[in-house]
Write a structure and sequence with these properties.
Helix content: 40-55%
Distance between the termini: 114 Å
Number of helices: 11
Order of helices and strands: HHHEEHEHHHHHHH
Strand content: 5-15%
Radius of gyration: 30 Å
Shape: elongated
């Protein structure tokens, strides 16, 4: 479908939806998008309209998060090693000591303010509000994050999740297989970029005012783990006592049987 026709239909349907909802928006499309629906001027043609209904408090973030197609699939691997994760609710921090046991409970919500997230990543906020002229422009934008590390995008087919992402995400595959080998030759690491996950943790908690929630979650988790360890120790102690009691009983039975045998063989 030609872009002018697509744009006309989009505006038309946004106007119709505005009669039903207080807030209506369409995320910025991915660059070089060529998968628009067939031109509806032909007989038998239809327009597919995908509608997502969300809570008002998440509206701005969801429009932001879905902008530019797969952009956050590109940004995700760069922030993940630093304990950060963005989903449809906002930007989160993972607590490392909880993460391996309970990934959901390890999340600490930081913010759903798009500008605050871009500022934290040191990404151009104005450029995000504009459609990229090309896919390579979007790739360069993803690389501008202060968290960007080329090693986060090395293709690893040994993990099922990575294989699935490569197979299902054409732009991500193009980024990893074509753009990154070319980019890694010229990329210079930002000297102001954080070096460790701990640095990012402290900066994020301070900037977004989440220290209390983080410390409360850690205390609660450690208390639960301590109680669990106590229960396990008591269980092992009881198990050892039962084994000891059984061993004592078996030994007593053996002695009793031996005494009975000697009595049977004692001459009168």
């Amino acid at each position: 479908m030609p872009q002018p026709i697509y744009r006309s239909l989009l505006n038309q349907h946004l106007a119709l939806l505005a009669n039903l909802f207080d807030h209506v928006a369409s995320p910025i499309e991915a660059p070089e998008k060529d998968s628009f629906v067939p031109y509806p001027g032909l007989d038998g043609s239809h327009v597919q309209l995908d509608i997502q209904i969300c809570q008002l408090e998440n509206f701005e973030w969801e429009v932001f998060h879905k902008a530019h197609g797969d952009l956050w699939n590109l940004l995700g691997p760069s922030i993940r090693p630093f304990g950060l994760m963005a989903n449809d609710k906002g930007l989160h921090l993972r607590i490392s000591e909880i993460e391996d046991f309970d990934r959901k409970r390890s999340l600490v919500f930081l913010t759903a303010d798009p500008t605050a997230v871009l500022d934290f990543c040191r990404i151009d906020t104005h450029a995000y509000t504009q459609k990229f002229d090309s896919v390579d422009d979007m790739f360069e934008y993803a690389c501008s994050s202060r968290f960007f590390r080329p090693e986060a995008y090395v293709r690893d087919d040994s993990r099922a999740k990575n294989r699935k992402r490569i197979a299902q995400r054409e732009l991500y595959r193009r980024f990893v297989d074509i753009f990154m080998p070319r980019k890694s030759v010229t990329t210079q690491e930002d000297s102001s970029a954080p070096e460790t996950r701990e640095q990012v943790l402290e900066e994020a908690l301070e900037q977004f005012g989440r220290w209390n929630e983080y410390e409360s979650r850690v205390r609660e988790w450690r208390k639960e783990r301590k109680e669990l360890a106590r229960k396990r120790a008591m269980k092992e102690l009881r198990k050892a006592q039962v084994l000891g009691d059984n061993a004592y009983a078996d030994a007593w039975i053996d002695v009793t049987q031996q005494q009975a045998t000697r009595l049977q063989h004692t001459p009168e």
